[in-house]
Design goal:
The structure is a homodimer. The first copy, chain A, is of the alpha+beta class. Helix content of chain A is 39%, strand content 27%. In chain A, the strands form 2 sheets. The first copy, chain A, has a 3-stranded mixed sheet with strand order 4-3-5. In chain A, 26% of the residues are buried. The structure holds a DNA duplex.
DNA sequence: TTCCTAAATGATAATCATTATTATTTAATA
DNA sequence: TATTAAATAATAATGATTATCATTTAGGAA
């Protein structure tokens, strides 16, 4: 894998945010800084980095979202606004990984995704 | 919601299988029995039933899959073949639901999705 | 440093699952 | 039986993602 300027900047951006942007959202943020970058390049690099476990790839409401935080954490997805919240309760994921039968499956990771209504949407 | 023959048959079929078919896979199975049914009808009904919590809607590899089993269970997705396996270890989901802060979020459900390689793909 | 080559890029076209549209049909109620 | 809101079938539109391909580039070898 070659260390291109584009990939470096994509990863840098993803690490700098606490949201879970889509490829297009990353593209929109980076485009002003690297005016020649193509949306396809952003897609390609995000997929490549997800494939090599440098970042996480999530599927929410028919779109892929990316997360540079590799720590054992969980997500909450609001079914109203679609926002993805981080939860940092490693014991939840650890419990799941402890319980699953590792003889039957070779487990690489576990995704714990809570669904519901976030406090912002509940108030409205 | 009107009780149409199409919706009845879609739900019946989904309840009869242990796989987690996409809308198109459901359509292909039902089409021979209801020759006039439209793929859009299958999509519409599956979404409607998922919305009203009669079935589950899962996102795997860029496609929606549906599951009529509402019991508290987990999934394992093989990154090789893409097959979705069921796990029945309610304690895993219960632990997660116990741990999450219900004050901050109104949680409706939790999805626990393990990723890795299934035993079939590992052998090959 | 220059050359070489596989890999990556940018631009754009293609894909394809899903959703929207609309005329027609139907379930359910009065 | 009549009414009507909801659902259907058929098809078009959508849109995120992937594929294609000519051009450029990173990085190692000579």
């Amino acid at each position: 894998m070659k260390n291109t300027y584009q990939r470096l900047k994509i990863l840098e951006h993803l690490k700098s945010v606490k949201t879970h942007p889509t490829a297009e959202q990353v593209y929109n943020k980076i485009k002003p800084k690297i005016s020649t970058i193509s949306l396809a390049t952003v897609h390609r690099n995000l997929n490549q980095m997800a494939e090599s476990n440098q970042i996480l790839k999530l599927e929410v409401k028919g779109q892929y979202h990316f997360d540079a935080d590799l720590s054992l954490h969980q997500h909450f997805v609001c079914s109203e606004c679609g926002k993805i919240y981080d939860l940092f309760q490693p014991d939840i994921s650890e419990y799941a990984l402890d319980e699953i039968d590792q003889n039957k499956f070779q487990v690489n990771n576990v995704q714990v995704i809570f669904n519901g209504i976030c406090s912002k949407c509940k108030k409205i």
